[in-house]
């Protein structure tokens, strides 16, 4: 990953963007993308669409979601403690004791998620799973009135986690799901432009909102673009650490390359082409079978208008949906290289038509 893109990657990770509140991140994404595209628009949902003009009969959408998981303040008690509910899927067991930022109307407020100490649990309580309703956020307010001067009902909350550079190209941070994918989208646009790569594809680079709330944001973006091909970027579960058996979930290693999906949600020809490109160009690549609609924006992109030929490229991720996710910058780069090479292909869209995706033979 080049220095400019790496610096932008870290900036993305340090910019809060809980689902529904992605605006600050979108402004920074816009600034990075401006030199590499012809026009940038934002739709009513808040999706950012960066367009590099080409042949309109070869419309290709390259997309990642920009939102991260978080919490939302739902109640303030008389002592000034904040109660909350999740924005996206979060395991309650990871929350006690962590630092968070409450994004109040006057600026960020530091808080700690508290719960009753384990010393005071009854034997029965120790056996029960943790519940968010038994936790609170302590912002050191003296009372409800003082708390309401800093935050309000509906204030979004994000994890306060520093970005940590580990060995072997690994990065630990919050919100790598899916700012790793968003970095790929930005990296493809940068690589095509700065390397003078010519393509007649009509390229739409999309940063979508609200994926963590059910792949909501990408639907109007894809509907407006009406792409012939859509490639979603996301993370997938790495299985090279304890407790995540490869025989059950698939074999995905850090530094093993980007992961190309195959399944009913995925255009077989597109998946096959991405794998062939990787093999020809010496780009590391891994394969994932998903025998259902994926839990990514790919499932929504596929269904707009008359249907979209859809692909999914993922970055292996450890400890997904925690304050310290882990990905490899080498895997991010492999995804950038793979999709950039795809954009260079001189292809006819008819090659990807459903009748050309037959793999079951007579």
Secondary structure topology:
Elements: H1 3-13, H2 23-33, E1 39-42, E2 48-52, E3 55-65, E4 70-76, E5 82-87, E6 99-104, E7 107-114, H3 123-127, E8 136-138, H4 144-148, E9 156-159, E10 164-165, E11 170-173, H5 176-194, E12 201-208, H6 218-225, E13 229-237, H7 246-249, E14 258-262, H8 268-281, E15 285-289, H9 298-301, E16 309-317, E17 325-328, H10 329-343
Parallel strand pairs: 3-12, 3-13, 13-16, 14-15
Antiparallel strand pairs: 1-2, 2-12, 4-5, 4-9, 6-7, 6-9, 7-8, 10-11, 11-17, 14-16
pLDDT averaged over residues = 95
Distance between the termini: 46 Å
Residues in β-strands, percent: 25-35%
Q: How many runs of DSSP E, i.e. beta strands?
A: 17
Structural class: alpha+beta
| Biggest sheet record | 8 strands, mixed
Order of helices and strands: HHEEEEEEEHEHEEEHEHEHEHEHEEH
Estimated radius of gyration: 21 Å
Low-confidence stretches: none
Order of strands in the sheet with most strands: 1-2-12-3-13-16-14-15
Helix percent reads 25-40%
Please give the count of helices. Answer: 10
